[in-house]
Write a structure and sequence with these properties.
By secondary structure, this protein is mostly helical. 81% of the residues lie in helices and 0% in strands. It is built from five helices and no strands. It is flat. The N and C termini lie far apart (77 Å).
Length: 97
Amino acid sequence: MLQAFGSGCWRWILLAAAALVTVVMLMIVGCFVTFRGAVRLAFWGTGPTMLVAAVLTAVGFLVCVFTAEETKGMTLAQAGGEPESATSNDEQSLQTD
């Protein structure tokens, strides 16, 4: 069957099979983590479970901040695409009113 598609087709078939295995594994892990979160919530209680979730969120935020090369050295307004003068004009108009 592979010869009917040409000699280079087997690479794409292997790539598709690897992608399928990866997606299935991610779905299994996702189901396990979802179930484990409910068990952890029932065992530890709400407070410690939310604390663990907050720590994981903070770690994810720090990883994003320190690894996002395209926004390094920019203010939040610059990263959001707003011109720097727009924020200063708004502040001045608020002060004169």
